[in-house]
């Protein structure tokens, strides 16, 4: 059915609501503190954007933070996709003892709140002298139960069992089946899962703030540090927030259509 | 190894084996044995990395937290456990701030989840129409999802500022008095909830939209033939078809709401773990963080974590019962 003007009006309203805080982040990041402490609040861009970005960059170790975050999110996305695809394939198409029990365990733990693991994770990390090092953030999130379940659901339908069997009859080893049959079929789902994991790891907050410090932060940890100064400079804080969000927003502008398609596809399959 | 690398040798690649021929009496038996091993054990190899990491960073911490919750453990000597039995839990149940946090988690959870899912459902309905620039609307509505908790909360703190915030400025412009969003219970909880709503409404709308697109068109056509209006079609065709998806989003949002942490922490600024001067928006997540990392009682924090786990199990069971009841009543 065709949309009427009311539909467009309501959508425009919600879109404005979705985009406004982001635009306003940029507006406030381009002003100075004194201007922010006046009514009415500023609506238009000022001329201090670059200055504030520079201050945020140097005060919050933003360069290091961005580098760290790309590293962490990239590693987590890669690990999640790889391990979830192999495990998901095994759960979907291979027969082995304890398969159902293992799958149920995996799905059941999706209910477990991450806060539950923080105390012992902290002890393990302290024991290994990993505090403030990136592996303490990467390793605990390298696999995801959701990812395994997601890939299994996808492969059950998308990968014809005959294809696997045919490769087997041809004498293909399991690794070859994985490489030449499973990975090509799973590629769309792998892309979605990789994207979801990347965004999640980029924005992850609770564990990094415990495991890392301001000396070696991810973007989110650095932002928290900016917000907690003695005399918080709001404009600089907003510049930091902008720096931490910009890379993902850029990705959204470039690949938005694919990302949306991926999420919707994942929603139906999952 | 791929076929290409095999062919690159000093000998030409062996011809592919003829499958129709009966197996020869033991040509290269090691090879067929290897193959059988491969078939039998490779599933375990494929799930092993996941379960290796998962045991180390998922299951072990879960069990250890339960164990630690029965001990006195200090942050600065996390390996020294002193058995105290159920003392941590008893102390928790006697702490007014725990009940306060539990209540806040519940009210903020309802305040953020209910409007969020209702709006997402409505938005999905609108997005389901044939639209000009359909992908623009979808991408624009999803952008908040890409924003981190930290960045989103920082800008909302500014928007809700008492003296110079834009929300109060707009309220005054329409003649309503300014609100001190931080200090009172309701206003601060509404403010925190609005951050959650802003970040997740578009994402949920897309999930609903995907489910709507899977509903066969004939259902709508026959409903239209029966004279059902658009609103009636939405109520009697779309919503029932979406029931499993709605239940899924309710469960996921409930889990998210129970674990709410970043938004209230940063909304509180310095000393945010308290959730405001009178703990008016301290959630269970913040309470756990305060017990462990500001009062240095890891044992007590563990007890909070397990209590949260039990609450989630309870919610999961209730959800299951509701789902079953809905199926029966149909």
TrEMBL record, chain B:
<keyword id="KW-0813">Transport</keyword>
<dbReference type="InterPro" id="IPR000515">
    <property type="entry name" value="MetI-like"/>
</dbReference>
<dbReference type="Pfam" id="PF00528">
    <property type="entry name" value="BPD_transp_1"/>
</dbReference>
<feature type="domain" description="ABC transmembrane type-1">
    <location>
        <begin position="102"/>
        <end position="319"/>
    </location>
</feature>
<keyword id="KW-1003">Cell membrane</keyword>
<keyword id="KW-0472">Membrane</keyword>
<dbReference type="InterPro" id="IPR035906">
    <property type="entry name" value="MetI-like_sf"/>
</dbReference>
<feature type="transmembrane region" description="Helical">
    <location>
        <begin position="303"/>
        <end position="322"/>
    </location>
</feature>
<keyword id="KW-0812">Transmembrane</keyword>
<comment type="similarity">
    <text>Belongs to the binding-protein-dependent transport system permease family.</text>
</comment>
<feature type="transmembrane region" description="Helical">
    <location>
        <begin position="106"/>
        <end position="127"/>
    </location>
</feature>
<dbReference type="GO" id="GO:0055085">
    <property type="term" value="P:transmembrane transport"/>
</dbReference>
<feature type="transmembrane region" description="Helical">
    <location>
        <begin position="41"/>
        <end position="64"/>
    </location>
</feature>
<feature type="region of interest" description="Disordered">
    <location>
        <begin position="1"/>
        <end position="27"/>
    </location>
</feature>
<keyword id="KW-1133">Transmembrane helix</keyword>
<feature type="transmembrane region" description="Helical">
    <location>
        <begin position="139"/>
        <end position="161"/>
    </location>
</feature>
<dbReference type="InterPro" id="IPR051393">
    <property type="entry name" value="ABC_transporter_permease"/>
</dbReference>
<dbReference type="GO" id="GO:0005886">
    <property type="term" value="C:plasma membrane"/>
</dbReference>
<protein>
    <submittedName>
        <fullName>ABC transporter permease</fullName>
    </submittedName>
</protein>
